[in-house]
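INFO  loader      accepted 1 record
INFO  loader      residues=503
INFO  predictor   begin
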Amino acid sequence: MLPYVLGLLVVIALYSMKYHWSRRKMYAAASKMNGPRTLPLIGNAHSFCCKSEDVLQKITSIIDEYNKDPIRFWLGPNLLVVLKNPIHLEKIMSSSKFAYKHELYEIFEEYVGDGLISASGLKPKYKIHRRIFQPLFDIKFISSILGIMRTQMTICMDKLEEHVDKETLDIHDMIFACAGDIIGEAILGMEMNNQRIGLSQFCRSVVEMLEMAYERLVKVWLQFDFIFNRLPIKKKSDEVIFVIHNFVEEALMVSFERRNSSERDEARFVPIIDTISKFAESNPDIINQEDLVNHLITFFPASADTSTIITSFAAVCFGMYPEYQEKAALEVRSIVGDEISEITLDQIYKMEYLDMCMKDVLRLFPIAPYILRRTVEDYALDKWVLPKGTAIVVPIFNLHRDTAHWENPEHFHPDHFLPEAVKNRHIYAYMPFSAGPRGCIGKTLANIILKMFMANLLHRFEIQADGKVPDLQLKADISTRPKGGYYCRLKKREWKINDTLMK
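INFO  predictor   done
INFO  writer      dumping C-alpha cells
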C-alpha cells in the first residue's frame, strides 16, 4: 500500500512542478506589480467572501489603494491585472489583440449562449456577426421605432401621474416595464404589455439571470461545476434559462409567421428579429438557429435593462441636484414647447445640456463597472510585461471617479462635459459603452432612449430625491445598481414664462 501512496505523491508532485513551471512567466511578471497580499491556492479570492451586494465596494477599495501603475491580484489560478492609466487603456482597448474576452466570461455562455457579450474575438464568427448586426441599430431603424417609443413613454408618464404628490416611490420598476415594452416590440417583435398587465415572466427571468451570472463570476467556488451543480442556485438557474429560451423561440415562430403572412403590413416597421431571422434562413452557414437565439437573448437585457438603470439613476440624480434639473427642464421646454408627445429626433439632438447630464450619469454609474480582456501573447506595456493568459481588468467605475480626470468625481456634475473640459481630458478616461473593437453596437439607440425618456419626465414632472450621490450605497451584477432602490418623489411641473403660470 505504501509504495502506491508514495507513487501517487510523486505523480502529484511532478504534475504540480510541470504546472507551475509552465506558468513561470506569469509568476515573474506578477511579482513586479503591486497588489494585495495573496493566500496559497486561492490568491485574493478570500477578499470576495461576502454578500454579492458588497463585491463592488470590495473591488473599488482594493483598486483605489494603488496608483496608476498596473495592479495584480489572483482569483485562484487566474492572474488579473488592473490598468488605471488611460494611456495604457488606450493601447489595450484600441488594439484588436485585446478583443479577446477572458475565460471567466464563459460563465455567461450558460445564460446567453455564445452571443455578442460572451463571445471572444478568438471565434471568427464573432467578427462576422458583429458586422451584420451593427448596421441594424442605425438612425434609420431608430427613426422607424420612434412611434413605439412615444407611445410607450406616454403610457409610462400617465402611470407616473398617479404618484404625483404621493410618498416616495422606487421608479425603477415602472421604467423597466416601459423599456421592456419598447425593446420587446422593437427587437423581438412581441407586444409585451408589461405596463398594462404587469411585468412578464420573461422580463423577471432576465433580471434574475443577470444576478445569478454575476454571482458565479465573482464567487470562485461557484465557477466549479461539481460545486455549482449541487447547490439550489443550479435549479433556479435552469428554470430561468428555460423561461428565457422558450420565450425567444416563441418570438422566432411569430416572426416567421409574420414575414410569411399574405396579410402583413408593408408600412409597419421591421423589428430586428425579422431582419436577422430572414438573413439566418438564407445564410444558415453564417448564422444558425442556436446563434440566432443566443444573440436575441443578449440583445434584450443589453437594451432594456441597461436603459432602465441609467434613466432610473438619472431621475434620482436630478432629484438630488435640483439646480441641474431646472436647467435641463428649461432646455427641453424651450425646444419642444407645450407639447412633447410628438418629439422628433432633431429635437432630441438639440438638447445639448440634457446630453451633458446623461453623460455624467453614465460616468457615475457605468453600464459595465468592470470589463475583462485576455492576452493571447506576451505584451510589453511600458516597463511591465503582461504574460499570455493574463486577464486585463478595465476598472471603468474607478476610472470615472478618478480625481485626476474629474473636477467633482463623486457628485452629479454635468459641467464635466463642457467642451473645454472634454478637450482637456484623455479620451480613454471615459468609456461608458466600452471602446474599440468591442464597443457597444447599440449605443446610439441607448442614447436616444435615455434622452427621450428623460425629456418626457422633466417636461411633465418635478423630481425630488433625498441626499446626494455619495449617500447612495451601490452594488453590481453585470451593471452598477443601488443597494436600496431608485427612490424619488414627483410633483406636477409648473412652467412660468413671462410671469404667466402655465401647466
